[in-house]
């Protein structure tokens, strides 16, 4: 499988907090995916979305996903990924990694005595890391995608 068939990333920018804008309203209830409750229609507080998804601004950056190999993890083409370079790339985490010089996003797994990159789309085979040049760029902490089908 060539690298061009994997979900890749495109660096968007650092997670600087300047110019983010004022906090936005946060509903004081959870949103049900079933029938709505009219008793829950009040605002409780304000939320700064940047502060919610960026825990370590100096170590965090944003990238856009390209491709469909991570659909099973809710990562779609054009999604914005929040990546934290300060987190340890432990098995089970979704990471951004430069594999043989090309950045990609995959889940890191330990299988037997080896370490593998695993797509969450079953059409893509796991990739062994043994003997390959790679550099971990960070751990994906959040995914932001447009439900209207238009990537910003």
What is the topology?
Elements: E1 8-14, E2 24-27, E3 43-47, H1 49-53, E4 60-66, E5 80-84, E6 94-99, E7 102-111, E8 114-118, E9 127-128, E10 134-144
Antiparallel strand pairs: 1-4, 2-3, 4-5, 5-10, 6-7, 6-10, 7-8, 8-9
Describe it for me?
- Helices cover 3% and strands 41% of the residues.
- The chain is mainly β and 152 residues long.
- It has two domains: 1-15 and 55-152, Umud Fragment, subunit A (Ribbon); 18-53, no CATH class.
- The strands form two sheets. Strands 1-4-5-10-6-7-8-9 form an eight-stranded antiparallel beta sheet, with no helix packed on it. It has a two-stranded antiparallel ribbon with strand order 2-3.
- The longest helix has 5 residues, at 49-53.
- The two termini are 29 Å apart.
Features:
single chain; 152 residues; mainly beta; Umud Fragment, subunit A; 2 domains; 8-stranded antiparallel sheet; two-stranded antiparallel sheet; 41% strand; globular
Task: Give a brief outline of the structure.
With 152 residues, this protein is mainly beta. The protein has two domains: 1-15 and 55-152, Umud Fragment, subunit A, CATH 2.10.109; 18-53, no CATH class. It has one helix and ten strands.
- Structural shape: globular
- How much of the polypeptide forms β-strand, as a percent range? 35-45%
CATH class descriptor of the largest domain: Mainly Beta
> How much is the radius of gyration in Å?
18 Å
CATH topology of the largest domain: Umud Fragment, subunit A
Tally the helices: 1
Low-confidence segments, ≥5 residues, pLDDT <50? 1-5
Largest sheet: 8 strands, antiparallel
SS elements, strand count:
10
Q: Order of strands in the sheet with the most strands?
A: 1-4-5-10-6-7-8-9
CATH-level-4 superfamily name of the largest domain? Umud Fragment, subunit A
What portion of residues is helical?
under 10%
Question: What is the number of independent domains?
Answer: 2
| CATH structural architecture of the largest domain | Ribbon
Order of helices and strands: EEEHEEEEEEE
User: Mean pLDDT, nearest integer?
Assistant: 79
Distance between the termini: 29 Å
Class by helix and strand content? Answer: mainly beta
